[in-house]
Specification:
Layout: H1 3-25, H2 34-38, H3 46-51, E1 66-68, E2 74-76, E3 85-90, H4 95-111, E4 117-122, H5 126-135, E5 142-144, H6 149-155, E6 165-169, E7 175-180, H7 185-193
Parallel strand pairs: 3-4, 4-5
Antiparallel strand pairs: 1-2, 3-6, 6-7
Helix pairs in contact: 4-7
Length: 195
């Protein structure tokens, strides 16, 4: 085998190993129930998902989930029910996620007085998230969803499983808005005004 063939074989083997690792670790969200991981995603068109339009329902058992908080303790989603909630899926290795966090934090601080809650669910390992938040703190709670957070995001309308992804729930606990891609303060404020 020539040098080029060896390089191609090495790249293919590395990609295969990475795929196997991802598949083995993708459903490891702390607190995610088996019903949640195995449930099909809610019916929502990909065009609606990308446009950020209304979402039908929520993922099964969403409000019963519990995540370890990056700053210690537990983030119980049931405790957040009854008031509007913005959930942002992000990761330290995602440049648009990192770029939008200050905008989300600004929104969280501005709209807390209006009863709007904000949480982040980090689709990442605990150590990088904690290290990142030491350097770039946010005022809202961050739950450690792990790579299984991708499954939860898909069940909430993120057909691509990409990041960042934001979901808005009304006070009744129903997902009414979602967006795949970077968001900003004005967009979040517009969604909150419509709740």
């Amino acid at each position: 085998m020539n040098r080029r063939g060896l390089i191609v074989a090495g790249v293919a083997a590395t990609a295969g190993a990475a795929g196997a690792w991802w598949n083995a670790h993708r459903s490891s969200a702390p607190g995610a129930s088996a019903a949640l991981v195995d449930a099909p995603p809610p019916a929502a068109s990909s065009a609606a998902a990308e446009a950020g339009s209304a979402v039908a329902g929520t993922a099964p058992d969403f409000w019963s989930l519990r995540f370890e908080r990056a700053d210690g303790g537990d983030l119980l989603l049931a405790s957040l029910r009854g008031r509007p909630l913005v959930v942002n899926f992000w990761a330290t290795w995602c440049p648009p996620c990192v770029k939008e966090l200050p905008e989300i934090d600004r929104f969280a601080r501005s709209f807390a007085k209006n009863g709007v809650q904000v949480i982040g669910l980090a689709v990442d390992s605990a150590a990088p998230v904690r290290e990142f938040l030491k350097k770039t703190p946010v005022s809202f709670p961050v739950g450690l969803a792990g790579y299984g957070g991708t499954t939860l995001a898909r069940q909430l309308g993120n057909g691509n499983g990409a990041l960042p992804f934001t979901v808005v729930f009304n006070a009744a606990g129903v997902a009414v808005q979602h967006k795949l891609g970077q968001t900003h303060y004005d967009e979040l404020a517009g969604w909150a005004a419509a709740l």
